[in-house]
Amino acid sequence: MILALMLLLGAQEAQEDVSERIAMVCSITDGRGCEDAGLAYAEGRNAPEDWVRAAAYYGVGCKAGNAASCIRLGLAYDKGHGVEKNAAYASFYFHKACDLDSASGCSNIGLSYALGKGVVKDENRAARYFKRSCDAGSHDGCANLATAYVKGIGVHRDRGRAVPLYQDSCAQGDSNACFNLGVLYEKGWSVARNLKDATRFYSSACDSGEGAGCGNLGLLHDSGKAGVRDSRQAVLLYRRGCTLSHAESCVSLGKAYLRGRGIKEDQAAGLRFIHRAVEIDPGFKPALRILARYRYR
Q: pLDDT at residue 70 above 90?
């Protein structure tokens, strides 16, 4: 018992030593040291995981003029990590990062304006920030600008201008850009319809953790549009997409169980995945319609 207590005290002292060293690094360096300190606490890397301390260090780093710290603090407010969730504060710090010439900061504040999240919705300003971010070399910014062209957000709709922007961002590993390229090739929007290319881009998106890419790739396998119809492979892809919190993938997986398509029929399992879709997106109508049907059986 005494030995255990001594070991516990030793661990606590070690954590205190780590905390002191992190604080010292933050105090004697520029804002980058504070960002690193915050990351150490956020990730539990060489320090006990502590989101409150992480946010505090990001705040010090941001105040010192470190744009990356401002972005991380904005994300903390956006998600409620270590601070109370506050979209207005999140947008404030994204704006500050952009003012400090951060391309990522400009992309994030552009999204805030596009969605009206923490700021008054302003699609024209959103498009300007996306362009500023893209011109500064942010692949996220270019992908967002491409989406603005596809949807006509603050700019005239021009899917043709979106294609090279998505292509460049996808080549740099932006999973959402790869997914959107898959959509363009599947639909034949401003490019020749090519289901092989759609499959390739959806696959790349899925491999990079984009649940929508997994779901759409599953639909292509399920319908045979990706080549030979393969409902079993589709189920695997739906499951992966659902695991990545893509509501539509969860619905597709649930329907596969309900119909016994690509997997043994199991109504309980099917409805469980439909419920999961609603947990991800409470307003997802395809899931709500299925639940309504089965509720009255």
A: yes
